[in-house]
UniProtKB/TrEMBL annotation:
One Gene Ontology molecular-function label: endochitinase activity
GO biological process, one term: chitin catabolic process
Gene: CHI3-3
Pfam family, one: Glyco_hydro_18
Protein name as it appears in the record: chitinase
Length: 301
């Protein structure tokens, strides 16, 4: 029998720490959008499910071009009547569980734009005072302080979202998360200048609803999706990590749905090899609740 080798305890500790660090560094997060379907349950229930690390409240979908900012949370509450302020305690309960909660700007259809840098800075002031660390008599979601702002900009031209990102970063002084949900064609038509500021923490790229672009999954073919993923992970600033944005059910998007088995066996092993891999984003909580998609990913993201 060969002699048993004995290593100094400090070397064993170093190896253990390096192994633990590798495991943590490869771990991803799961993000979900909540707020656009009254049947998805409460925000508190979403956070207490234990599935998600980050929840985006969707959407602040009216702003800019001289408009007063407006919130739309589907059947959950009536912003004009002030009933959305009741979510303050639910936001606090989410944060107590370690779940980050952000306000998401934009969405696929509504009335928003930024006509000037001054308008972008004005919106940053509004967001700071009404959702973040500032103060206002009319905070739509009550006194709870959100963790940051998500940019889900899917209409308009290349507006002043880079100015908005700079103004928010200045206001927050590093204390807020800035995230974005660009479309998978690279670079994004609306957010490229904003992303290039290097101020964003997370980018959950929407690898769906772009059937004519070479960047999403087609049944039986992962090549376009993985090529699109490669363009994003190699092209964004080093400050941001990149999430694989997916529909949580076939009904959640017009195209790009990947069944969980294919995702786990054929996509995630390649995706997770990127040094700036951040995790998976799901659209949305209602579809995820009905399909159980996120639950099937637990421990594998």
């Amino acid at each position: 029998m060969a002699p048993r080798l004995r290593y100094p305890s400090h070397l064993l500790l170093t190896v253990s720490l390096l192994t633990a660090f590798a495991a943590v560094s490869n771990a991803g997060q799961l993000t979900v959008y909540w707020g656009q379907n009254g049947g998805e349950g409460s925000l508190a229930d979403t956070c207490s499910s234990g599935l998600y690390n980050i929840v985006n409240i969707a959407f602040l979908n009216k702003f800019g071009n001289g408009q007063d900012p407006g919130l739309n949370l589907a059947g959950h509450c009536n912003p004009d009547a002030g009933t959305c302020a009741a979510f303050s305690s639910e936001i606090t309960s989410c944060k107590d569980r370690g779940v980050k909660v952000l306000i998401s700007l934009g969405g696929a259809s509504s009335s928003y734009s930024l006509a000037s840098a001054d308008e972008a800075r004005s919106l940053a002031d509004y967001l700071w005072d009404n959702f973040l660390g500032g103060s206002s008599a009319s905070r739509p979601l009550g006194d709870a302080v959100l963790d940051g702002v998500d940019f889900d900009i899917e209409q308009g031209g290349v507006d002043y979202y880079d100015e908005l990102a700079r103004a928010l970063s200045s206001r927050c002084n590093g204390g807020c998360l800035l995230t974005a949900a660009p479309q998978c064609p690279y670079p994004d038509a609306h957010l490229d200048a904003a992303i290039k500021t290097g101020l964003f923490n997370h980018l959950w790229v929407q690898f769906y609803n772009n059937p004519l672009a070479d960047c999403q999954y087609a049944p039986g073919d992962t090549s376009s999706l993985l090529a699109g993923w490669g363009r994003w992970t190699s092209g964004v600033p080093a400050s941001a990590d990149v999430f694989l944005g997916l529909p949580a059910s076939p009904e959640a998007a017009g195209s790009g749905y990947i069944d969980p088995d294919t995702l786990l066996s054929q996509v995630l092993p390649s995706v997770k090899s990127a040094g700036n891999y951040g995790g998976v984003m799901l659209w949305d909580r209602f579809r995820d609740k009905t399909s159980g998609y996120g639950a099937k990913l637990q421990g594998s993201v």
